[in-house]
Amino acid sequence: MQRALWSPSSTDNLAIETLQKYAQVSDFPSLHKWSIENPELFWRYVFEDNGVIGNLGAKGLTGSGFLGSEFFPDAQLNIADTLLKGSDEQIVITEISESGVKKEYSRGQVRKIANQVAFGLQQIGLKEGDVVSAIVSNVAQTIFFALGALKIGAIFSSTSADFGTATVLDRFEQIQPKVLLVTTSYQYNGKEIDCSQKIAEIVSQLPTLKKVIAIGDQSSAYLSFSNWIATCNPSHEISIPGGFDRPGFILFSSGTTGKPKCIVHSAAGVLLKVLSEQKYHLDIRPTDNIFYYTTCGWMMWNWLFMGLGTGAGIVLFDGNPLFPNPQRLFDIAQQNNLTFLGVSAKYIDSIRKLSLQPKQAHDLSKLRTIASTGSPLSHEGFEYVYENISANIHLASITGGTDICGCFMLGVPNLPVYAGQIQGPALGLDVQVFNEDGQPAAVGVKGELVCRNAFPSVPLYFWDDPDKGKFRSAYFERFADVWTHGDFVEVTAEGGYVMHGRSDATLNAAGVRIGTAEIYRITEEFAEILESLAIAQNWQGDTRVILFVKLSDGARLSESLISQIKLALKQKASPRHVPALIMQAPDFPRTKSNKLVEIAVANEINKVTNTNLGALANPESLDWFRDLNL
């Protein structure tokens, strides 16, 4: 057994402990078992314990399997009512720009503006089931717009303001929005980015649009948000109830292997799933201030948005998290009394390599939880947090996806934290690791992350997929009626999980499957290495592993460094982890949410055409790999 980096000093005030008493169990494994064996009891408890407004009806879970199950078929509710419940005076949205401008909104203000948006959308002619979209920064108006859309039963879908024309059109041409909210300019890394030409190109190719509304710029070609809502004066509170399965959000797959899949989510299903994560797994309370560094093109924006349902205040930031100095997010944490700070594993690795010591320069006494997602957090990342940020914090590595708008595995606040491990499976989800034969893998044996039962935030369907053929193909081809997520994972002796990367990027070395994260964890211990990317090249009737590295300024990939890397991989992992070649690359391809796209590099090296370069934030990075002759 590993040595725990952290254990809770007290569990007296934890909501998960109250849930354990309700379920009449004494520990988390027993609670998890209860939650999947009693789905209706568990999800009703989440609904009632979180004060969700509405009526679930008499029926719980009907049907069976992922494609046949239906949650609460008689329910009537509107999730905006829950997201807006509470006292008028509490500050529930704090917006911070990169330049430091801070705006605060009370719940009363948010409720009023959301109602004006709902009225304005109805005046335009929108009704339940219509789609509204947004190309936006992470600002308060985006929250108001989403709340207003949900109030009338419309479907909300957003992308980030930094998405290119083709990338946005690949998404929005499919779903045909009727109203579009846009950011005409935004700031990043100290520079003002003008979006007006891009927005004009996009608008010209979306013929279903009835209205375009612009955030900020009064001189824009479009009606400004503030001028628009100034004309919207509803005489009553607008809230159109709907069924539990009423669509509320459309999210998108990364689109790296074709046009993005448009994933349609139930508003109520996402709310219930996220509340179960935030309250029981992450100890978020009504008096908290919570923050996740995200853009509006990543599902973590939707996850943060749902935080309003806990009664907590949410803090929005738009810009570079390392600008104007690497301490920026910790400045925000201190100044806004954050209790929950969410970042990416890549961010933690970046500040670790900068030798940042936030605990020396900041008062983080209010901070109870740090969450990390986006990629596996290394052992060194875990240790860095406890040594340099706070020794008294719950570090929750979390993993899930756009596909479920939530987590498969995440933190458990009444369990110890071990370096490199995600603490436990999400309540209500029968998470397993399967071997090649579709059976649960033994402890310490890597396999496919799967889920064997339905849960509220399973997508309703893919847009324009009437027979659910694309939906079945995406998740259920490998194992019948078992959700296969595409992650390569192992269960640990401590009951946690170690992530080894995407299963479509696993490497086959001498017949052994190796997760790319296993390699990165070791190579990125080197101060000279900023980032690594490993792929398998088809080679002489077999495959060989090639490791590409990005080096820090002034570093050189010498024969000595190559030898040190190979030796470290051999000693700390195994001889099979040692790549056949190690090469320095200028840059690596990424999705818009900053995830490495190993498969795109593998395609270039193996001379396979990459079909959708528009899905990448930096498609030009592939040019270097395309020109290699290996």
What order do the helices and strands come in, and which of them pair?
Layout: H1 15-23, H2 28-37, H3 39-49, E1 61-62, H4 65-68, E2 70-71, H5 79-83, E3 91-97, E4 102-106, H6 107-124, E5 131-136, H7 140-151, E6 155-160, H8 165-175, E7 179-183, E8 185-188, E9 191-194, H9 196-204, E10 211-215, E11 223-224, H10 225-230, E12 247-252, E13 262-266, H11 267-281, E14 289-292, H12 299-306, E15 313-318, H13 328-335, E16 340-344, H14 345-353, H15 358-361, E17 369-373, H16 379-389, E18 394-397, E19 399-401, E20 406-410, E21 424-425, E22 431-434, E23 447-451, E24 461-462, H17 469-475, E25 483-491, E26 497-502, E27 507-509, E28 512-514, H18 516-523, E29 529-539, E30 542-551, H19 559-572, E31 581-584, H20 598-605, H21 622-626
Parallel strand pairs: 3-15, 5-6, 5-7, 7-10, 10-11, 14-15, 14-16, 16-17, 17-18, 30-31
Antiparallel strand pairs: 1-2, 3-4, 8-9, 12-13, 13-24, 19-20, 20-21, 22-23, 23-25, 25-26, 27-28, 29-30
Structural description of this entry:
- With 630 residues, the protein is an alpha/beta fold.
- It folds into two domains: 15-491, ANL, N-terminal domain (Rossmann fold); 506-626, ANL, C-terminal domain (GMP Synthetase, Chain A, domain 3, 2-Layer Sandwich).
- Helices cover 30% and strands 24% of the residues.
- The chain has 21 helices and 31 strands.
- Helix 8 (165-175) packs parallel to helix 9 and helix 14 (345-353) packs across helix 16 (379-389).
- The radius of gyration is 24 Å and the shape is globular.
- The two termini are 43 Å apart.
